[in-house]
Amino acid sequence: MFPTRANLLRASSRVDINVLVPIKRCIDYAVKVRVNPDGKGVDNTVKHSMNPFDEIAVEEAIRLREKNKDLVDSITAITVGPQKAQDTLRTALAMGADKAIHVQVGDQHNVEPLQVAKTLKHFINRDKFELVLMGKQAIDGDENATGQMLAGLLDCGQATFASSLQIADGKATVTREIDGGLETVQGNLPMIVTTDLRLNEPRYASLPNIMKAKKKPIESVKETELPFDLKNRLETVKVAEPAQRTGGQKVDSVDDVVQKMKEKGLI
Amino acid sequence: MLNNIIRRGSYFIRSNKFRPFSSLSSLSADEIMLQDSVRKLAQSAISPKVREMDESEHMSNDVISHLFNQGLMGIEVDSQFNGSESSFMSVILAIEELAKVDPSVSVLCDVHNTLVCTVFNKYATDPQKELYLPQLTTDKIGSFCLSEPASGSDAFALQTKATKTDNGYILNGTKMWITNAAEAQVFLVFANVDPSLGYKGITCFIVDKDQGVQIAKKEQKLGIRASSTCVLNFDDVFVRDDQVMGQVGKGYKIAIDILNEGRIGIAAQMIGLAQGAFAKAVPYTYQRKQFGKAVGEFQGMQFAFADAHTQIEAAKLLTYNAARLKEEGKPFTKEAAMAKYYASRIAQAVSGDAIEWAGGVGFTRETGIEKFWRDSKIGAIYEGTTNIQLATIAKFIQREYSDM
């Protein structure tokens, strides 16, 4: 059980915490995304890898344990995705997560944040996690919603856009990157923390750890085994490429720049 | 008859325990993960240092630590010796990925894995494995000392002598063109215990650097300049009996055996190199405009790219096939020679062309395209020259087609 307010005291007196790290398999950040001819989606036959913000979350969980061995009892990676998403879970295991949960959906099913949040809540209620560390958003949908929705569903604290994280005495202290600077917040565990780009630089799995990851357990759960459905609430009507950049114009002097900008009504 | 064929077919499928039939370029999930991981390491930790290491002719210690920390210096070694306990194909993929960024770093990793660690894995006694493998996987680089001033392709004409004494041997002689020698702590030295026995006197010794290995000269080279290549002197170096690798007189067998699979490693280095040069030059041709369009859009360029790309693919398939054959325990000597011969040839051709594709920019040292071409030349020389590879392939042809 995710500790409720009533047994928070018990939770905070515990030394060790269990960390859940939700991850997503996305089109690799280095791939140039191309829109399908039907205008309803993008070409998915390209290289995929773990959402970079999730990689940062996995790394942070491992660093929490490396900093204080007694603090972190277990690190579990979880994903909602197609069969191939297992490879992404293996990457998390090779980086240092202990075990993984794979909620399998169809190849073409791009699950929405609310459904993912409900799924995470389901497993948080089933097992016991004091900290959820997850990417602030996935680079495919850029929704930036799942973490916040999950905190809402669980009625617990959330700290988004984390650029530093400290855990001590059952409390999490998080520095957040906000417009105009940094904000530090503190709250009791359990908490949802979403990671920003500057929290850490994720490691690449070492070869011995890649080999060891083969022996770590992945629990596979079918979509139909969940007590709710993962159907999308939204339909993708249209996907379009960003507008082509039109060529600029060269001018000879500062006066010309001002003149041209005036002509175009920009100043 | 039909039953028999079916039975044999299914036996073959079962006996092929590594993977079901699939395309040569199909990789397992672990292999893809390893490839990804080495690629990231190469891009982030090695790439920024390539030019400086080349210009200063020095391998960065930082790069070496990265290779050890990532488990790339004992890829096939058992985990009880701190190795990664992975496959030969993983070695090949790691060498290829490293060579895409720096063939010098690639050869350091290659020699350490395919020559040194493999000799220990296959021929060392248990106490030797227990003593040396944990060092070789943790922080000590190994070096393979076979060539001499008067013995290269004719390796077994080597002159270094091992004279028997009470409880060991005294080594005397000179070794030449020894890769990794400047950084290495553990040396596998081939010496003859009794020249009257000819090649049957050749024995492989494990020598620790502090037993008196002297670096006489560090060579200044055309390519792979960050990788050290040295002349070594052995003046009355005493080694104990328990430092004989395998058995006395088995050195020639070890050398032949190890160099056969080592060639697949060099082939991997060469296909990585060719891909590295290709990937540096081609994108530039789509940016550079002449006569109103991108240079890469002229048909003369397009066909050159297509041809080079096909050659790289062919070399890759030869290399992966030789590696898979080795993993499956099948004969691979001819295929390894073909892979090394062809990969080194196309690596030189592709990297040379890549300079021209990038034009004036390709000729400058700043872009690093010319470095790939300089680095490629060694591919036709070390671990069996091109002519030695061709002679090996020809031997198989003659065996098959003579006496018909």
Automatic annotation (TrEMBL), chain A:
Its main location: mitochondrion. Residues 38-230 form the Electron transfer flavoprotein alpha/beta-subunit N-terminal domain. Keywords: Electron transport, Mitochondrion, Transport. Binds 1 FAD per dimer. Binds 1 AMP per subunit. It is found in: Mitochondrion matrix. Gene3D superfamilies: HUPs (3.40.50.620). One of its GO terms (cellular component) is mitochondrial matrix. The electron transfer flavoprotein serves as a specific electron acceptor for several dehydrogenases, including five acyl-CoA dehydrogenases, glutaryl-CoA and sarcosine dehydrogenase. It transfers the electrons to the main mitochondrial respiratory chain via ETF-ubiquinone oxidoreductase (ETF dehydrogenase). Belongs to the ETF beta-subunit/FixA family. This is Probable electron transfer flavoprotein subunit beta. It comes from Wallemia ichthyophaga.
Automatic annotation (TrEMBL), chain B:
GO terms for biological process: carboxylic acid catabolic process; fatty acid metabolic process. GO terms for molecular function: flavin adenine dinucleotide binding; short-chain 2-methyl fatty acyl-CoA dehydrogenase activity. Its main location: mitochondrion. It is found in: Mitochondrion matrix. Coiled coil: none annotated. It catalyses: valproyl-CoA + oxidized [electron-transfer flavoprotein] + H(+) = (2E)-2-propylpent-2-enoyl-CoA + reduced [electron-transfer flavoprotein]; butanoyl-CoA + oxidized [electron-transfer flavoprotein] + H(+) = (2E)-butenoyl-CoA + reduced [electron-transfer flavoprotein]; (2R)-2-methylbutanoyl-CoA + oxidized [electron-transfer flavoprotein] + H(+) = ethylacryloyl-CoA + reduced [electron-transfer flavoprotein]; hexanoyl-CoA + oxidized [electron-transfer flavoprotein] + H(+) = (2E)-hexenoyl-CoA + reduced [electron-transfer flavoprotein]. GO terms for cellular component: mitochondrial matrix. It is an enzyme of class 1 (oxidoreductase). The keyword Flavoprotein applies. InterPro entries: Acyl-CoA_DH_CS, Acyl-CoA_Oxase/DH_mid-dom, Acyl-CoA_Oxase/DH_mid-dom_sf, AcylCo_DH-like_C, AcylCo_DH/oxidase_C, AcylCoA_DH/ox_N, AcylCoA_DH/ox_N_sf, AcylCoA_DH/oxidase_NM_dom_sf. Its EC number is 1.3.8.5. Pfam families: Acyl-CoA_dh_1, Acyl-CoA_dh_M, Acyl-CoA_dh_N. The keyword Acetylation applies. Its cofactor is FAD. Belongs to the acyl-CoA dehydrogenase family. This is Short/branched chain specific acyl-CoA dehydrogenase, mitochondrial.
